[in-house]
Design brief:
mainly beta, six-stranded mixed β-sheet, five-stranded antiparallel β-sheet, 2 helices, 35 strands, disordered N terminus
């Protein structure tokens, strides 16, 4: 078992309080932070102590931008080495990070584990795994785990502290996802380049068919869903899994649904549910689990997924010019088209990020524009909430690309990073009710070499009764 060790002196709570005051909105920071407000609320002060952890395009090791120290000390190197262009994946807890260097995987602590204790303090960023996991080609965060895909076609679950678990699958093509209700979503090769999605239990058994089809006429069971052209992405909330197929279409699965109606099968048991939409006079029959756009179309052409932290299981699906919210409601999903917030001159969408505390979404474009909106659930449907805030980051006409930019979210703040200029744009809100604004800009040479980054921060559970995929 891999153990976690802390060897470095801790910072005192008093020092952190003083640092927080220095970090509040001001115009005197050494890294040219600008803001029109004089202070943050106490709520935001307690939440704005995260660390941007990032790898470089050279072998200089992991770097951090640290909100828990004075402004002049925020950009610093850690003692954790990394190879060129290491890829980073943040755990669902927001506190540990998987670092994939070529085919070697390690897990790193952010040092923020004790930030909300009675004696809040930080530790150094440090390695949790004494030796690397080898032969790893991909890693994702799922529930309380990191899930890997190896060169041998196996998928193994590692807990968020870097310890090996007993969960392992062979002959898979994508990392296995942990589902609520002690089951897992396994991805295996189908025919013609398709991938089959199968729900299995702890014994890797489907029980002869594990997915219920929500009925068009009557309930039935299926062994699996199917994705054409492989798997491009997947995103999860507590009870909704959304999978992006290689052809740009979506597949949905409701996890751990407990029927209460007499007309449902196995009343009182935990079910995994999807639906196959029948043909209508205006619509061809959809694939099993495909997400509808409206009464006669399906959502197509999607390029990326972003899970939110809303209690109503909301996931954003987006492309160059689309922004959809899909939420799991009981035994079926709802969806809403938020593409109108972008506008005609917004540019092509590069990425979407979601805060962990106030249900805000940020969308960044190739023109350097950012749009931020909060969202809510009305009549079981996800909708935009409040004013849409737009900012031009940097000079007009500057080219932003997926390879020279990053968009990351914290509790109620966003980091937009343009590596070409080595600039980090910090946008935040002073409370859950205030509008987002450009808090400040930070420039540092190391940002020009940034390859992959995560915004580590303490994430409060939205619902203490949820297990978050633990098994």
């Amino acid at each position: 078992m891999f153990k976690k060790h802390f060897h470095t002196p801790t910072k005192t709570l008093l020092a952190l309080a003083l640092i927080g005051l220095l970090a509040a909105c001001s115009s005197n920071d050494d890294d040219d932070e600008k803001d029109n407000n004089d202070h943050h609320s106490e709520h935001n002060l307690s939440h704005s102590m995260g660390r941007l952890v990032y790898s470089l395009n050279n072998a200089a090791g992991l770097q951090i931008y640290d909100q828990t120290v004075e402004a002049s000390e925020r950009f610093t190197a850690t003692n954790v080495s990394s190879d060129n262009s290491a890829s980073l994946v943040l755990a669902k807890s927001g506190l540990t990070t998987a670092v994939l260097e070529g085919e070697r995987l390690s897990v790193v602590s952010s040092g923020l584990e004790h930030m909300q204790s009675d004696h809040a303090h930080t530790h150094d960023v440090e390695l949790l795994t004494p030796s690397s996991f080898t032969g790893v080609t991909k890693v994702v965060a799922t529930g309380d785990y990191f899930s890997t895909l190896t060169t041998s076609g196996a998928s193994d679950l590692i807990n968020s502290q870097g310890e090996v678990t007993s969960h392992s699958w062979s002959n898979v093509v994508y990392p296995t996802l942990a589902l609520a209700g002690d089951h897992f979503l396994k991805f295996t090769a189908g025919t013609g380049g398709a991938v089959n999605l199968t729900v299995v239990d702890n014994n890797n058994s489907t029980g002869g068919g594990s997915i219920y089809l929500r009925p068009n006429s009557e309930w039935e069971m299926v062994e699996s869903l199917s994705c054409p052209d492989g798997i491009k992405d997947a995103a999860q909330t507590e009870n909704l899994a959304l999978v992006l197929c290689g052809d740009g279409s979506l597949r949905w699965l409701i996890s751990d649904y407990v029927p209460t109606n007499e007309g449902h099968p196995k009343k009182g048991e935990h079910l995994y549910i999807t639906q196959k939409y029948a043909a209508t006079t205006n619509r061809l029959e959809g694939a099993t689990g495909e997400v509808t756009k409206n009464s006669n179309e399906f959502i197509r052409g999607i390029q990326g997924l972003t899970a939110t932290f809303d209690d109503d299981n909301v996931i954003a699906a987006w492309s160059d010019d689309q922004l959809w919210l899909v939420n799991g409601h009981n035994d079926h999903p709802h969806r809403s088209d938020l593409s109108s917030i972008l506008g005609a001159d917004f540019g092509k969408v590069l990425n979407v990020a979601a805060t962990t505390d106030d249900d805000a979404l940020a969308v960044i474009s190739d023109s350097g524009k950012i749009a931020i909106t909060r969202f809510d659930i009305e009549n079981n449907n996800p909708v935009g909430k409040g004013e849409v805030i737009k900012e031009q980051l940097g000079e007009v006409g500057a080219l932003w690309t997926s390879s020279n930019s990053q968009l990351l979210a914290g509790t109620n703040e966003f980091f937009a990073i343009q590596t070409h200029k080595g600039v980090l744009y910090h946008l935040d809100a002073h409370s859950d009710e205030d509008d987002y604004h450009l808090h400040g800009t930070h420039q540092h040479d190391s940002l020009q070499q940034l390859h992959s980054g995560v915004f580590a921060h303490f994430q409060d559970d939205h619902d203490d009764d949820h297990s978050h995929g633990s098994h």
